[in-house]
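RagB/SusD family nutrient uptake outer membrane protein: structure, please.
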Amino acid sequence: MKYINHKLIALLLTAGVLSTACDSYLEEENKSAKTIDIALSDPKTFDQLVASVYERARETTTHYAPDMYYSFEDLGTDIVTRGTTISGVSDINDYVDLNPLNGVAYQYWKNQYLIISAANIAIDNADLITGVAPAVKTAGIGEVKFFRAMSYFNLVENYGGVPLVLSQVKTSTTDYTRATEEAVYTQILKDLDDALAGANETPSAYGRVTKDAVRHFMSKVLLTKGYKSFGVPADFTTAASLAETVISHHALVSTFASLTSISNQRNSEVFFSYLFGSSAVSRGWGNSRHQLYKFPYYDYPGMIRGNLYQKGLEPLPTPFFYSLFDDNDQRADATFRREILADKTYTATVNGAPVTVNAGGRAIYFPKVAWTPAEIAAVPYKVINPDKYFVVDGITNAHAPMFKKFDEPGVAFKQPNELSDGTRDMVMMRSGEAYLIAAEAYLKSSNPTTAAARLTTLRARAGLTTPVTAGQVTIDFILDERARELIGEVNRWMDLKRTGKLIERVLLYNPHAKMNNALKPKHLLRPIPQYEIDNTYGSITQNPEY
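Here you go.
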């Protein structure tokens, strides 16, 4: 009997015919194969095709590939650098010898097109599947177009113009060419218009794309487009208007600590998250954010490889990042810990005498203001001053206040090449960022007074009650605020590129990139993977100077 085309069947199988990751929405169902007649006569086929897009987007966000995480989000920016001594070179963080053979550049490109492929399959087969309720079909197509737009936005901002593939690929072809950056933006906004029309205002199940998720993403796309040579002033005003709609629908949580609490993941402020859940079958790789920005703390006296802090990924925040927080800024305590407590009793030496520190006592401390050598010598625990974050201390090569924003106590200690197994929701969109998008859009629309008002409201939630004045509002002010509010949640590299601040701020505040001084204008685009150029026999062309 004739089977449904191999791309569709492969999608249904390799997607795990997705599971309970979005609660009642993504129900697990195992099938070995489907005949074309059965597949097209079963309305659940459409649900599975939509679910596969969600899964691909989720899985390639929590990790690019085993032992490859978040490199194109925040590494090589002003607030995140590599977790090593300030020596040597790095292609992504330091921009030294970043070239078309770079593995991350290839994997990131590949992952975005996998999402696009899944979206195209769902869109092209929607009308062929019988029995799908019109409202279900409309919403599903809107949702997958949202994801297709997101992937093209990731591609165009990282690589410039890219091939626009808008239909299911059924035959082998190599004649792909790069569309212009403007053409890609036109398609992104067309998809988002369709998504806004199709997505539900209120989701049928938590975790599904809503109109507010579309509005939020559209506001960011238009904000970015407004800076381009093909942008228009209305891009900024429309971005502000969309952000205001989102703000009006999603009240800020009262405190930042409450926002980041694992017991309050689904709250008024959050309107789109990737869901993982407690089932090992459904959660795939698992949310890996609990591993962000942590050093090998377990090598210090009194510490173990436990399930409280977990294994970290290599990058660390820069000293500049830690310097951004005023004493009264409550986001600092909710984002990172300066004190690490001992897992077990240990013995240290103070003034030549042994001192016993019980489990639960202080093991490592990072003072905000440097301690004197005498003060350090007088305590049994390890004290690491701000100027020593990237200096070998005889135990680790680099060390900084421990990130806690996404902590998930109880998750097993895992190596980066193992399943992360995090079960927390991965928050992708919340109104806290909408305030910052609105502020930036108002500033670019020559309305700093309203920009200041939005910033004042957001900062007040963090305990900073002094109003922001119109004269204070600059792009740098907003970028600093985005760092404090959104580290680990949004793409910092894109923020810096959008605002024209990537080169300036990286060379000022990223210690490794500053040392090598290799960042140039060509690095505002990543290299096109050589694999793609070779496979198309050169019809896909390389970015300048690579």
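Notes: The first helix runs from residue 6 to 14.
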